[in-house]
Each structure stands twice: as C-alpha cells, then as structure tokens.
Sequence to fold (427 residues):
Amino acid sequence: MNKIKSIFHELRQKSLVRDSFWMLLSQCFSIVFQTFYFVLLARTLGAQEYGAFVGALSLASIITPFSGWGGPHIIFKHVSKDRNLLNVYLGNALILIAASAPLLTILALLFSPIIFSGKVPLIVVLCTFVADLIGLKLIEASTASLMSTDSAKYAALIGILLHGSKFSAALIFSFLFSNHTVTTWALLYCSASLFAALVAISVVIKRLGFPKFRVNTLKPELLEGFYFSISGFSDSINGSLDQTMLASISTLKAAGIYNAAARFIGMAMVFMISFAGASYSKFFQHGAAGINGSWRFARKLLPLAFGYGILIFFVFIFAAPFIPYLLGESFEEAVPILRWFAPLILMIALSYLASDSLTGAGFQGVRSSIQVSSALLNFFLNLWLIPRYSVYGAVWATLATELAKLVGLYTTVFILNRRQIAKSSSL
Fold:
C-alpha cells in the first residue's frame, strides 16, 4: 500500500503532471489524426503503392537520427538544468541540421536505386527525406526547446499541428486528386511536414527568442551528439530496417502489409510516448545523483509501463480481425501479423525506463552500445529470416531483437546500480 501511495505521490508533482497532461492530450489528438490519415492512405494507395511509400519512409527513418547530430537531446540535457542556455543550444541544433541533412539526402538519392532495385521512384525518396531529415528535425528541436523550458502546452500543440497537417494532406490526396500515385502523395507529405516545421520554429522564436549561432560551442558536444545519434539510429534500425529490407529483398506488398500491422504498434504507444516525453527531463534531474537516482525514479513508473503493456497485448489479440474492414481486403494478411506483435508493446514500454535511466545518469555511451548491438542483431536476423519467411521473418526478427535489448538494458542498469551502491557504502 505504501508503494502505491509513493507512486501516486510522484505522479502528483505539479510539473510532471502538467507536462504529462499536455503531451497526452497532444498524443490523443495526434493518434486520431494518424489513424484516419493511415486508413485513408492505405485504402487509397493499396498495399503495393503504399509499400513503395513505406520503403522510402523507413529508409528515411533509419537515417534521420544523424540529421542534426543529436541536437534536440543536447538541448534537453543542458536547458533542463539552465534555461539561459536555450538560445545557444537551439542555434547549435539548427547549424547541425543545416550541415547534415543535405549531405544525407544526396547519399540516399545515390544509393536508393541499389537498395530498392528501382522499385521506388527517386522523387518519392527525395520528398520523404526532405520531410523527415529537415522538417521533422526542426520540429524535434522546437519541441525540445519548449519542453525543457516548461512550455509543454506549446510543444503539444506543435505535435497536433504536425499530424493534423499530414491528415489534411491525406484528405486532399484522397478526395481532391484523381491521380492516386505514390509520387503525388510524397509531394503532399513533404509539403505538410515543412509547413508544420515552419510554424514550430516561428513559435519558438516568438516565445523564447532568436537562436544564437556560436560555432565554438559545438565541438564539446559532438561526441555525445554522436552517441545520441547512434542511439536513435539503433532504435530506427529496430523499427524500420525490416520494412526497408522487405521492400528491397521481398515485395512492396509485403512491406505495406507489415507496416500496416506495425502502425498499430505506434498507435498503441500513445500513452507511453506522451509520459516518456514528459518525464525525460526528470531523468536528467534525478540522474544528477547517479544511476541510483535515475533508476529509483524509473522504478516508480514500472507498474504503469507493465500494466499498459499487458492491456495492449489483449487488445491486439482480440482486435486484429477488424484490420481488413478498416484498410481493405488487400491488407487481410496483416491480421496474424498484428497478433504476433502483441507482446511488443510491453517490451518497448519497459525498455524506455531502463534506457532513460542510463541516459539521465550520463551513461548515454553505454545505452548506445546496447542499442547498436541490438541493431546489428536485428540486421542479421532480418537478412536470414526475410528471404525464407518474408513478413513473418521480419516479425520474428523484431521480437527477438527487442527481447535481447530489454535483457541487455536491465542487466546493465542493475550492474551499474549495484556498483554505485557498493561504492557509496565503502566511503
């Protein structure tokens, strides 16, 4: 009973509850937009054309963490402790986006014909990369700036704007265009993302002032920025590599079906993502006392993560048969895929807490090492299983990788925590 009271006492902290409310509100609105946007797009394009967009988008998702070189995370790290540093680190983030995004986009255009064997048009690749490597990264930098200065309300509204813009683009595409090709959609998708990014940056400048561009402050953060990029890259590998490989070495339809099931994973993570976003800066604050402090904070959130994961498991099992009614008959094969994915939410939710405990205590390099290892495991499992089992091979590779990552993260946290306790006892 005392443990339960302790959990609710922590959740009643004013700033965390307020930030969680706004981020949850944002996620709720966003999930509505995403759901209708996804259904409209899947029904309009069909599994084959939708699979082409998924292939380009998943490749962009893998590369996106290197755009900006971890700038938004660096903003969180410094500004959550000293708000006076906001304008400098926002300026740094913008410099890194401007330096990295064009180069990464050019590389993608050079290699995508090899990766997709010409199945995905170059204009689709270009549009998705501009949308994510520039538009999405500008939004991430804006959101980090607002969240780290206790402006969660405006960060939440930007999240709603982003998904609302994409939903509006999907409506225009479905009902105002007669030419329903993946190329047309990619152009609309890019326009929606850039519009939301422009508004986001404008809001930050109006509320918090103009960014300051001080190149001399970049160098000390490049190594940790690299760690943040590697961490995001590893997560993206686990979440997107399978879709890229399905589009490359299997079929576009297989990629579309797999993504349709995976979309429900993203929708189901709405609550945990909003809470993780609101609590992220708190891990840095508690982590000032070392891994013991950040892990003590994470333990109070464990029952919430575990309970939510179990709930979603049963929702997926019983709701899967309704997929063809939502998306059309071409997505009927997604029903068993979603049921295989049922345990994934629990694993991801628990991984969030261990990962953020490491980051908050200054062990981002350790976290990145675990995530890189899991990304390599995911790559080799997909390389082995997809040619043999197509969509099911990708599912099994994802489940095995997430389980291995979960075990690695918690083992590392326990070891580091015990070392700190032993060191403190010996003093």
DSSP finds 16 helices and no strands in the chain. Residues 1-5 have pLDDT under 50 and may be disordered. Residues 146 and 408 are 32 Å apart (CA to CA). The two ends are 34 Å apart (CA to CA).
